[in-house]
């Protein structure tokens, strides 16, 4: 009888092994699937199946999630910095060309500063710059609005993943308590955490009951057992609400949400600030230079530009009093009595050089801003490429342990097939022996 029981137990073990191999092969190309292996132990009547194990390494999974978060952050940052480059580099919004046009108009008036046509050209090109700045400001506002919408969408997506992870936590806990298999649920949960990490960086900890707790990199709780938090993005502030408490996420946000905020904080908002400063500086210095000259009526010049210091790009316009005849293209000199008199006579154009110098510096400043943006873009692309390599390495390390190797599975299948055949032979021999014994009586 012991031979028969031994053979049956071996037959069952071999069958479990072949079923496990077939399951591995069937799911070999399913994202997030972790290969399985049977665990056997000696039993009083042969062998017993202890468990079907998922072959996983939690540290390698954590590496994948961190790498995924970093990669998504750099990809998102690269995308939005690239959008900024497209906006400011757009030919129709190129402020350098517009400023050069004003400078060319001033220089053209050198030969005949009193000519109304030259003066009108200066006013027209200056107005063209204000129009272009307004369009650039609108395009940058649209970019920031789009980023705000993407932050809202990303937080909603992340929250949907948190909800599903909480639901699977409950299912795993229940299945563990009932002794039911949880491999498929655990694979699904790990895949959801991987997707979640593409939106925000997470740390994970598995409890004895099979549930997983998640938190942000700075410790804000996202999932605790079946309690699920909600990620909120207000402006550029990120927080998590869980159990009626609010936890700020101020650093190491990661993922798409972190990438968008990094692009805003590190590149887009500083560059917009630089553009505002450059335009305010140019307008102030042009107005100052004109105030130190005289117009066609030998009166001090009036401002060519006007703006609100709070937001120069949104408000830059022509000065309310400027007209072609009030352009102070002529220079002036002290009259010796505390006043001023025009410098020279007909054809006085000595103030044009002063204004032209200011405009020339403005183009240099604008080029510097574009150059800085290009450097930021190159650095972000380099960071994304490095993050991609690290992500690929993390996935390869995980797959070397948890992935399905077809050659290994083929060898296992042959091994379990032979084990099955051998135990079937044991059962056959046991049956023949039992019949022989019966026939002896």
Task: Itemize the secondary structure elements and their pairings.
Blueprint: H1 2-26, E1 36-43, E2 46-54, H2 58-89, H3 95-108, H4 116-178, H5 183-197, E3 202-206, E4 212-216, E5 221-224, E6 227-228, E7 230-234, E8 237-242, E9 245-249, H6 255-291, E10 305-306, H7 312-315, E11 317-318, E12 332-334, E13 340-342, H8 352-402, H9 406-439
Antiparallel strand pairs: 1-2, 3-4, 4-5, 5-6, 7-8, 8-9, 10-11, 12-13
Question: Your description of this structure?
Answer:
This protein has helices spanning 2-26, 58-89, 95-108, 116-178, 183-197, 255-291, 312-315, 352-402, 406-439, and strands at 36-43, 46-54, 202-206, 212-216, 221-224, 227-228, 230-234, 237-242, 245-249, 305-306, 317-318, 332-334, 340-342. By secondary structure, the chain is of the alpha+beta class. The protein has 2 domains: 1-25 and 416-441, no CATH class; 62-393, no CATH class. The strands form 5 sheets. It has a 4-stranded antiparallel β-sheet with strand order 3-4-5-6. The longest helix has 63 residues, at 116-178. The two termini are 18 Å apart. The mean pLDDT is 90.
